[in-house]
Amino acid sequence: MLRDRTVAFLCLALTLIIWSTPITFFDTEFDGVDNDRMEWSCPRPIFSPSPAAVDLDGLRAELAETPTGIIQSEHPQCRLLNGTQLVLGLLSLAGAIWKGRVWWLSTADARAEKKFSRLHAKTSGKPKGMLG
C-alpha cells in the first residue's frame, strides 16, 4: 500500500508529464493526405489548450505542389487531444491536492508534538527573571 505523500507526488508528477508532453505519434489517415510524407506535431497542452484548426484542403494542396519531401503540420486532432490532456492533468492535480491534504492533516499531531518538544526542551522548569 502506498503512503499518501507518495500518491500525492505521483499524481503531481503525472500532471506535469501530461501537461508538458505533446502527443507525437499519429496513425490516423485522411483522404488525400499521405502520412508517409507528413510530419505531424502538436503544441504542448499547457501552453496551447485549444490550438487552431488545421485546414486539410490546404495540406492536400501543399502535398500536390511538392511531390517530394516531408511537410510539417499540426495534426487535425490536436484540438481535441490537447483539451483532453488538459482535463486529465486537472484531474491528476486535484488528486495530488487531495492526497497531499490528507497526508498533511494526518501528520499534524506529529508536527505539533515535535514543535512542542523543541520549544520546551531548553527550559529547566524553574522560574526565570524577577520571579526567582
The secondary structure category is mainly alpha
| Helical coverage, percent range | 40-55%
The domain count comes to 1
Tally of DSSP helical segments: 4
Strand order in the sheet with the most strands? 1-2
Terminal Cα span: 55 Å
Care to describe what's here?
- This protein is mainly alpha-helical and 132 residues long.
- It has one domain.
- Helices cover 52% and strands 6% of the residues.
- The protein is built from four helices and two strands, in the order H-E-H-E-H-H.
- Strands 1-2 form a two-stranded parallel sheet.
- Helix 2 links the parallel strand 1 and strand 2 (71-74).
- Helix 1 (4-20) runs antiparallel to helix 3 (78-106).
- The longest helix is centred in the last third of the chain and has 29 residues, at 78-106.
- The model has no long low-confidence stretch (mean pLDDT 86).
Descriptive terms for the model:
single chain; 132 residues; mainly alpha; two-stranded parallel sheet; 2 strands
Quick summary:
This protein has 132 residues and is mostly helical. The protein contains four helices and two strands; from the N terminus they run αβαβαα.
Write the layout of secondary structure elements.
Blueprint: H1 4-20, E1 38-41, H2 56-65, E2 71-74, H3 78-106, H4 108-120
Parallel strand pairs: 1-2
Helix pairs in contact: 1-3
